[in-house]
Amino acid sequence: MYIDSKATYCSIIWNHRNMSLVRTETILRLVGGHVASVNSTLQYENQESNPVEAIFIFPMDSNAAVYRFLARIGDVEIEAQVREKEKAKEEYDDAISSGQEAFLLEESDESSDVFRLSVGSLPPGQTASVTVGYVSELAVQADHALRFCLPAVLNPRYTPAGSKSLTAEVPGARAGDVPYTLSLTMDIYSPSSIQSVESNCPLTPLEFFSQDKTQAKVSLSPGHQFDRDVELLLYYSEPHQPMAILEAGQPGSLMGDTVAMLSFYPEIHVEKSSPMMSSGEFIFLVDRSGSMGCPLNRSNDNESRISSARDTLLLLLKSLPLGCYFNIYGFGSHHESFFPESVEYTQTTMETALNKVKSMQADFGGTEILPPLQNIYSKPCLPSHPRQLFLFTDGGVGNTKAVVDLVKRYAHSHRCFTFGIGEGASSALVNGMAEGGSGHPQFITGSERMQPKVMQSLQYALNPVAKDIAMKWNIPAEVSVTPLSPPVNVLFNLKRVIQYFQLTGQNASNMSGSVSLHYIVEDKPFENKISLNLKPDADNSMLLHRLGARKAIVDLEGKVREGDDKSAKERAVELSIQSGVSSSYTAFIGVNRENKEPVQGPLLRRLMAARRLFTYGKYTLLELYCLYVCCCDLMLFRKLIFKKMTVSGNPKGDTVHWVDVYCNYTKNICCVFPPQPEFSSVWATVLAVLWLHGYKAESRDEWQFVAKKAMTWVRAQSGIEELFRSFTYIHIH
């Protein structure tokens, strides 16, 4: 299947009136029904009177392999190169300090779904565009759809004490500050008939251009606001078809050999009398941090993340098999469990748990996920009851890799199934924990698709464990096979398995034979075979090579953190540089060396405001709380909000609606954080600093030191640090 699409984004994510960022075009292409290739071009314009360095921190699919970074200034095109990260930063700093125009793109050290883009020494009146190219696998949903997500929301990540925040320096864009509009058109080409395309955003009718319905076109409806993650679901016939795709390499490079992408759909038939169908220890870990009280998505303010988690958990609890054991943990700044130890699943224990679940609220403060995990793993597993861990979270943590590594360390004793709740949930955490824990990830952004996803994960958890998983090749002897993906360690019935291999040898470019996936389930051997009788694809995009390289790089990064392989980091950096695929140890760097005249004038540093989900009108929820504490009266608070919105020229109906929304959320916040008189001056100071950031950003040079001094005083107040840190994570959107 192929999809070509062009997307136009206007006036995206900026909170400074003299600097604009415009996402101008995105081109999406689907390969073989599994792989999406995306090229996004972003345009910056400096409308200030001085040179500017623009910083943009944005979300990215955690499974994406970023392989291209191209910049254009006027008629000059700059192809960025991958360098070791510290060397790339030094080159960037040297360039902008000498007045050269430079571009830097780097992946976060802590989370693979957060990237930082720096555009340095952009002269007054100058326009620059950058193109970021990446490739990623599309997830198969419970209803057999292929899911593509264009992330727009970067929610703040809670950072435990002593750690560096991923998102603290990024201001949140306020709804209404700029017009967020998105125009998206997709041209679809598929080897099998296309049934439909659905989205969380309004679409135009699907247009077919062939009688067999293998070519089609669809667009987002005009006027769409780019204020949410754009999710596209593609349905086509014959979704569970094993396949092999060979891609020829480019001579003279590390990626010069043929790469094979193998896609299996194991068919595991289990007897209904299987012990796994009535056994297991099910541990449910529910995020009860304050951010879980925020809306599930922007289209429905009435449904919160915690309510979605409750509904998901209630459905799972009612569906567990009799005879199993279970327990439920809630976590935030602290954690607690329903029962001291896992209890047997009976009518009585189920009803007790159901009643407790119904009363669960988002009232546990910050998001400390490591302590409850450590507590769970410290307890011995129950004999004959394999442990299954189910996590429900909005994924807003800053220590993602530490959490994933912990889950991976205990993968031999349990399986981990994750549910990312709400828009902007961290794909790095949700995918990483599931992959590291030999489970399966799900993303729930609306209740309409919750039930099949929940039942699919439960069905997977009830599947017996596949053992002795092996890949066997029947190909010419002169062809050697090197795996690029880590070994397969888990199989579920009809769950797609994709593996990448590097093929070397004289006949690798024109090969026939077969590959078989072998495994044993409950002492019964299984085999799934794919025939190879094809030539490599002549496409020179090297998409499969990029994905294979990314898989190998991520595997090496994990070995670095484990500490056992001393050469893993060096090999990861080498592979990243030679393949042109990003890693946490490398960065893309491009410098305009065509301009021989240094850019003159003092360099201004501007932070692009990331799109965060929970901003309303002209206020953040933290501002509302601070304002309420200063008012000390809900009626006075309501009058002030109403007056402010009326002066702003909002229609009366909208004003009444948003005032009600503000008051409801503020009351909910106050239930979690009751106002304390001794902190009233603290919150007044915080409100003043927020106002400066939100409404006087253009005068930052005048007030930045005063604001810094004020916040130093705030943090010095006894008892405020933990409260402020937790509350900032939850509400500074």
Question: What can you see in these coordinates?
Answer:
InterPro entries: VIT, VWF_A, vWFA_dom_sf. By secondary structure, the protein is an alpha+beta fold. It contains 15 helices and 39 strands. Helix 2 runs antiparallel to helix 3 (347-358). The protein is globular.
Which SSEs are present, and which pair or pack?
Elements: E1 2-10, E2 19-31, E3 35-46, E4 52-59, E5 65-73, E6 76-79, E7 81-84, H1 85-97, E8 102-107, E9 114-122, E10 127-137, E11 139-140, E12 146-150, E13 172-173, E14 181-189, E15 194-199, E16 207-208, E17 215-219, E18 230-236, E19 243-247, E20 258-264, E21 281-287, E22 295-297, E23 300-304, H2 305-319, E24 325-331, E25 335-337, E26 343-344, H3 347-358, H4 370-377, E27 387-393, H5 400-409, E28 414-421, H6 427-436, E29 441-444, H7 450-462, E30 466-474, E31 480-483, E32 497-504, E33 511-521, E34 524-534, H8 543-562, H9 568-579, E35 586-591, E36 604-607, E37 610-611, E38 615-616, E39 619-620, H10 621-631, H11 634-647, H12 652-672, H13 680-695, H14 700-716, H15 720-731
Parallel strand pairs: 4-36, 13-37, 21-24, 21-27, 27-28, 28-29
Antiparallel strand pairs: 1-2, 1-14, 2-3, 3-10, 4-9, 5-6, 5-10, 7-35, 8-9, 8-35, 11-12, 12-18, 14-17, 15-18, 16-17, 19-20, 20-32, 22-23, 24-25, 24-26, 30-33, 31-32, 33-34, 38-39
Helix pairs in contact: 2-3, 2-7, 5-6, 8-9, 10-12, 10-13, 11-12, 13-14
Pfam family, one: VWA_3
Domain VWFA: 281-462
Domain VIT: 6-136
